[in-house]
Each structure stands twice: as C-alpha cells, then as structure tokens.
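Ticket 4471: requesting a sanity check on a complex prediction with LQZAQKY5. Repro inputs:
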Amino acid sequence: MAEHAAVVAELICPTAAVTVPLSDSRGAVVAATITAPTRLPRFDNSAVDGFAITGADRVRAVSDHRDLELVGQINAGAGENQALTAGSALRIMTGAPVPDGVDAVVAQEYVARDGDRICVAGDISAGLNIRVAGEEVRDGDVIARRGTLMTAGLVGLCAALGVTAVEVHAPLRVAVLSTGTELVEATPGASRREPGPGEVFASNAIMLTHAIAGCGATVVHTAMVSDDPQEFLAAMTRASALADVVITSGGIGFGDRDVVKSTLRSRGVDMCTVNMRPGRPQGAGRFGGAAVVTLPGNPMAALASFEAFVRPSLRAAMEYTGDERRTVHAQLGHSIQPRPGTVQFVLGLVTLTPPRSVPVVELAVGRRGLSAVIDTNCFAFLDADRSRLAAGDLVVVTAEGGVPG
Ligand SMILES: Nc1nc2c(c(=O)[nH]1)N[C@H]1C(S)=C(S)[C@@H](COP(=O)(O)OP(=O)(O)OC[C@H]3O[C@@H](n4cnc5c(N)ncnc54)[C@H](O)[C@@H]3O)O[C@H]1N2
Ligand code: MOO
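Returned structure tokens:
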C-alpha cells in the first residue's frame, strides 16, 4: 500500500505558481511572499467613540478636572482636518481620523457631558485610544511567506491593505471518468431515467468530485462511459487533454470486460493489487500529458482509494494544508479482529463526551457498502499487522466535521 502511495505521489507533479484574484484564493497556498503595499492603519484614528483632547488639557486633568468646550465632530470617513487647541475638545467616532493637536481620545463612558461642554478628569495617558498610522503593518512588511495557507483572516488582511491578487500554487485540474455499461446518471426533471434491469445509479463521479474539490483542486471534466474500449479510449484522450490528473473508477478488476485495465495496461499505466480492503485493485501511470490514477469501481473501494492514494498526492502537489477535517487518536469502544496482512478502511462514529478527554470510536466493521456512511462521521485505516484490537486500544481516525461531543 505504501509503495502504491509513493508511485501516485511521484506521478502528480507540483503545480506552478499562478496569480489569482484575492477572492479566488480561499484555501490556496501562498507561492510567493506577499508584502504590504501600504501601511495599516493608513492614518491615525480613534479606537473608540469619545472625545479628542489636547496634550495640555490631558496633563492638567491629572490634578484637576478639565472643563472643555466641544468645537466639532469627526465621523468615520471624514476627510477634512479640524485642528484642535487647548481648552477645546472634539466629538470623535471609532475609526475617524485623529486631527492635528489631539493627544488622546477619552471614551465617552468616562466623560461627563452637558450640552456643548464636557468634563474630563484623572490620569489619561498620552496616545490613549489612538491607533497610530502604521502601528499594525508598515509599508513593505512581509504579510505572508511561501507555504502559508490563505485563511479567511489573511484574505481579510490583504483586502485591508488593498491587495487584489496573490500568487498561489495553482489548483490541479482533475478529470473524473467513471466506467461501467450498467451506470445510469440520476438527473432531475424531464431527462431523468430510472435504471433498467441490471443497471444502477452512478455514484462515484459525484462522490469523487466532492472529495477532489475538498482538496483544493478543480474538477475540469467528468464523463461516464460504457465498457466499450473504443469509447473509453476516446474519453481518456479527451480527459487527458483537459486535465493534469485523470481519475478513473471501475473496470480494473479481474473480469472479462475490465475496460480500464485492458485498455491502459499496454499504454503506460501499471495495474497492481495492494494490501488494502476495500480497494485491492489499483493502477497508476501516465496517459497523454496527464497523470492517471485508476480506482476500483465498488463505491467504498473508490472512496478508500481516494483517501489512501489520491488525496495526499493532490494536496502535496498544491502544498495545500487546509482541511476542515481532524485526525485524532480515539479509543476503540469495542474489540475487533482485523483481517491479518491487510489494511482495512473502515467508517466509524467518533464522539467525545466530557469528562472524558479522549474520544471513543465505534467502528462499523463489516459494513462494506456506502451505506456505512449512515450514522458514522469518521474513517480509519487499520494497521495490517494488528491481528486483534481490544476495547480501549487507540486508533487514528479522521473526522469530517470535527469530533462532536
Ligand atoms: N474474482 C474476483 N473478482 C473480484 C475481485 C477478486 O479479487 N476476484 N475483487 C473485487 C474487488 S475487491 C473489486 S474492488 C472489484 C473491482 O472491480 P472494478 O474496478 O472492475 O469495478 P467494476 O467491476 O467496474 O465495479 C464494481 C462494482 O461497483 C459498481 N460501480 C462501478 N462504478 C460505479 C459508479 N460509478 N457508481 C456506482 N457504482 C459503481 C459496479 O456496478 C459493480 O457493482 O472487483 C471485484 N471482483
Ligand atoms: O478491494 Mo475491493 O476494492 O474490496 O472492494
């Protein structure tokens, strides 16, 4: 299994750096240092709604209360500069520019106001509640280095600095080809066709598309083809021209009509079996200019194979590290007997119930179809060299939506 993972990782080349609009950079990885084109804040501004006072009045307020006349008001967005002299104060709002002559802003809750007069008293420090221009970021400061994930916060900081585009590792372009004469795509509306005798609704393409998008890659093409070799070859030619990576599902088993295996085996794609269940048959290679990973058709086998081989390689190629999922150590709720010599992919339900500090997982061993997703929230790859796992043993699980209590 590790050998095949290395083969797939080697096949999928790191993506080039591309400049994308900031709005399209979510979850991507920074490929070139981002520096600040300006400072932040851009100008001295007030951190509170309150009153701006001069240094002379601030100093005098320490020993005596100061009665000051309100001579104006500055709102956020105000462009004009209202100079301030001793004995006067300005009403000022959060985010409004602090004018010349102002030494501190006193928050309104600490000020007694009577019409156009206010009274300030006590020890007010110089610069109180003034956000000084450039105190957060100076012009030319490094905002993010290579390898940093474009998180919501970083996107926000870039926007605050007026950055409109960033250089990131390009999303991989992926095509998904599902094979099987028995497949029928469920569509809404008038074009809907129910499966006839021997036919089934197709599930792998949409499932894999979802998983690929979750890795930060872009699905540029999907197609569903029959087990006819000519049709499959044409579909491969088209898919490999459009994508960096082509993922196929089905047709790599041991039957008489395994179209992917029979067609690609002689065309640069190696077929093999790995010590994983489900997901024993696998294949990988190149076709046209694209990397090709052939996944087995059984939906759970396709899912297991994606998690074992495809996801880590896609993410590594884009240096993508963002993931809503969490990998945790959880204690087995019950003992199980894994299949010796085989890595088992199994879904489970992981929970963390206080006062426990370690999550507990119930593994749905024996549920090999996609229905295993019902009432489960995580998956695990069980070690091939464990012949028995006792209740309380630790297993590594990956939880899709965090670990609920
Ligand atoms: N004699 C043996 N037969 C099989 C073995 C074996 O060791 N000896 N291994 C089995 C295993 S394990 C797997 S996995 C499959 C792999 O076969 P294929 O990759 O060729 O998959 P298909 O035959 O095309 O499909 C298998 C199964 O999955 C359904 N399927 C396929 N694609 C889709 C799709 N897009 N959406 C929904 N369902 C799909 C298909 O209808 C079949 O039921 O070989 C076993 N055989
Ligand atoms: O190994 Mo198959 O891939 O079990 O379903």
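Notes from triage: Residues 299-317 form the longest helix (19 residues). Leaving this open until the requester confirms.
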